[in-house]
Amino acid sequence: MLILRSLPAFIMYRTFRHLVVLTFLAAFTCLRAALPSAVNAAPGSVARILPIAADGFAGSSVNVPANFQNTIVTDSRTQYAAFYAADSTLVLARRTIGQDTWQTARTQYKGDVADAHNTVTMAVDGAGILHVAWSRHANALNYARSVAPGLLELGAKIPMTGAHEDRVAYASFLRHPSGDLFFMYCDGVSGRGNLVLTRYSTKTRAWKQVHANLISGEGQRSPSPSVYIERDGNIHLAWNWRDSADVGTSRDIAYAHSADGGQTWTTSAGNALTLPITATTADYALRLPTARSPMNPPTVTADPRGNPFITDCWSPEGSQIPQYHLLRYDGKTWQLSQITQRKTAFELIGTATKRPPLSRAAVFAPSAWKKPPSVYVV
Predict the structure, then answer these.
(1) Cβ 90 vs Cβ 105: under 8 Å
(2) Which of 90, 198, 246, 315 has the fewest C-beta atoms lying within 10 Å of its C-beta?
(3) What is the maximal distance between C-alpha atoms in the chain?
(4) β-sheet bridge partners, residue 222
(5) How confident is the model at residue 220 (pLDDT cuts 50, 70, 90)?
(6) Are 297 and 314 in contact (CB under 8 A)?
(7) What's the pTM value of the predicted model, to 2 decimals?
(8) Looking at the domain that runs over 3-377, which CATH code has it been given?
(9) Cβ atoms of residues 254 and 282 within 8 Å
């Protein structure tokens, strides 16, 4: 038996031009980074609304897309946030856990805020250096890092490896338990792209490409990925395929696992995957046809025993009402559960920024094993 719990909340939201954060979900961000402080969060915690700034850009959802990783991260007792100001300036913020006041710093950089895909992503490495990437929707890589540990001042914009960095899209940082960072992104555009995986070493202070083409779109499609790293370093990867710039061509939910820092990958059953992974060789948690309005990318996590869970929303067969679903691997097969009974029809089709009446979901598993197992969907 699996217990499913729903938490009706958002990590960040917008009230006109004021940016605020719900503090009890800040600890859930720690779960993403596999930090010990994540265990302090409790579903019954009382949320406090803490203003970050009064001049956040509000002309699009670029500052607040649900479940895009790393707009708020926690490192030990310090929490960081990133957003665009009303004039599109990239702003960084930080606070000490337990304190209500945020310190903000306007950087020397600006972003393309008209396109809501150009979100900010960031991470703190094991040495305390803040890494930030922005305006990353099939654009040349925009990346900089703080000039010293714990500071909000960014240095000059620099490349990572210099290879496959001309068209960066759907990027995210992930922190490995060693303190190193991963940077995963689509090299290309929606419907035509490959997944790139790079790794930053805190010892050498340099990036190295792990795979220039981990998942290949073969010039016919692109992957929309979500990734989760366990405390022991195991990596879980889930993605949709997208056949063109039209979001209505998004389909399927595929899965892969790595136990060696992303070098080699296996199916959910533990069978080795030949790289690059393609639409033919991928391991599918669910075969979903196009025109079913999935909200790409899906979200993946794992319980303390390493069992993966994936959540996404799409319209069931014969319906135009998207519902949230949960996929879980029971050691043999993927089990599917519909977890909502929405009544409002909506079709996710077309190109450019959309305004759907629902958001991407997030899924979290408790850090300690309990019986029966439970997961939380936000």
Answers:
(1) no
(2) 246
(3) 55
(4) 242
(5) very high
(6) no
(7) 0.87
(8) 2.120.10
(9) yes
Domain boundaries, the chain: 3-377
Length of the chain: 378
In this structure, which amino acid lies at residue 114?
A: A
HEC letters along the chain: CCEEEECCCCCEEEECCEEEEEHHHHHHHHHHHCCHHHHHCCCCCCCCEEEEECCECCCCCCCCCCCCCCCEEEECCEEEEEEEECCCEEEEEEEECCCCCCEEEEEEEECCCCCCCCCCEEEECCCCCEEEECCCEEECCCEEEECCCCCCCECCCCCCCCCCCCCEEEEEEEECCCCCEEEEEEEEECCEEEEEEEEEECCCCEEEEEEEEEECCCCCCEEEEEEEECCCCCEEEEEEEECCCCHHHEEEEEEEEECCCCCCCECCCCCECCCCECCCCCEEEECCCCCCCCCCCCEEEECCCCCEEEEEEECCCCCCCCEEEEEEECCCCEEEEECCCCCCCCCCCCCCCCCCCCCCCCEECCCCCCCCCEEEEC
Terminal-to-terminal C-alpha distance of the chain: 20
56: which 2 tokens? 């956040």
Give per-residue burial for 312-328: e unless 16+ CB within 10 Å, then b.
Answer: bbbbeeeeeebebbbbb
What are 333-373's pLDDT values in tens digits?
Answer: 999 999 999 999 988 887 766 677 788 888 888 877 777 77
CA distance 193 to 240: 12
C-alpha–C-alpha distance, residues 53 and 17, integer Å: 8
Tokens linked to 111: 């972003």
